[in-house]
Amino acid sequence: MQKELVIMSSLQKMLAILDLFTEEKTKWHIDAIIEVMDFSVPTAYRYIKTLIDAGLLAKVNSSEYIIGPKIIKLDHQIRISDPYIVKGESIMQSLQELTGCQVLLSNIFDTEVINVHAVSPNNWKERITYARGVPHPLLKGSTSKIIYAYLPRAKLLKLYNDNLASIKLENTSESTKDFLASMSHIKKLGYCISHGELDSNLTGIAAPIFSDNIIKGSLTLIVPTQRLEVYNLDRLITYVTEAASQISSITNDFN
């Protein structure tokens, strides 16, 4: 048992190297990896060689590395096998055609909310900051708020307490009671609207997606805020909530 724990710990440390690669820093030098991860030189080279052999890392030169080709293959596999994408694509397409706006599908992984798919009009020119694969900021924007609102109370409280510093940074006056009341209000509505919280020129209208009554993600309609006044907001909300409900229904059948 002790040996299994050591092996698992080593595996976790090796895979943690992949977390170093971000949009801001796409290439890492071996010396920087050793310093940041606090690895010994032999351990670092052993881990990196294993990741390269698995296709998870690739060499740029003798001492610098980038994300490897296996990630691309896995990304393709997600696109063709994720039931929410496979079953939700046509519903998202219909919502996009109905509104002329971009539609996002996001999932929650543990407590991290990530956009996994987007359907956009051909003439769509708006650029979103948190595009596919970019984790959403905690409790900012309708996409993540609607998901977190449906988490079990104990998990929601842990999320709040574990991220208290960043939450207070966003809203210095919000107490635990205020936070829970805000989440409860969103849950009662069954949808969430945010104006310019992630991108100043965009409004998000999000509704929850479930699997066996457990929150799994959200569907978000992205509307240019300056165009919002020409829409019937209540109708947009209905479109989004109904589309999200349809995805929940068909993915339940997939299970």
From TrEMBL:
<keyword id="KW-0805">Transcription regulation</keyword>
<dbReference type="InterPro" id="IPR005471">
    <property type="entry name" value="Tscrpt_reg_IclR_N"/>
</dbReference>
<feature type="domain" description="IclR-ED">
    <location>
        <begin position="70"/>
        <end position="253"/>
    </location>
</feature>
<keyword id="KW-0804">Transcription</keyword>
<keyword id="KW-0238">DNA-binding</keyword>
<dbReference type="Pfam" id="PF09339">
    <property type="entry name" value="HTH_IclR"/>
</dbReference>
<dbReference type="Pfam" id="PF01614">
    <property type="entry name" value="IclR_C"/>
</dbReference>
<dbReference type="InterPro" id="IPR036390">
    <property type="entry name" value="WH_DNA-bd_sf"/>
</dbReference>
<protein>
    <submittedName>
        <fullName>Helix-turn-helix domain-containing protein</fullName>
    </submittedName>
</protein>
<feature type="domain" description="HTH iclR-type">
    <location>
        <begin position="8"/>
        <end position="69"/>
    </location>
</feature>
<dbReference type="InterPro" id="IPR029016">
    <property type="entry name" value="GAF-like_dom_sf"/>
</dbReference>
<dbReference type="InterPro" id="IPR036388">
    <property type="entry name" value="WH-like_DNA-bd_sf"/>
</dbReference>
<dbReference type="GO" id="GO:0003700">
    <property type="term" value="F:DNA-binding transcription factor activity"/>
</dbReference>
<dbReference type="GO" id="GO:0003677">
    <property type="term" value="F:DNA binding"/>
</dbReference>
<dbReference type="InterPro" id="IPR014757">
    <property type="entry name" value="Tscrpt_reg_IclR_C"/>
</dbReference>
<dbReference type="GO" id="GO:0045892">
    <property type="term" value="P:negative regulation of DNA-templated transcription"/>
</dbReference>
<dbReference type="InterPro" id="IPR050707">
    <property type="entry name" value="HTH_MetabolicPath_Reg"/>
</dbReference>
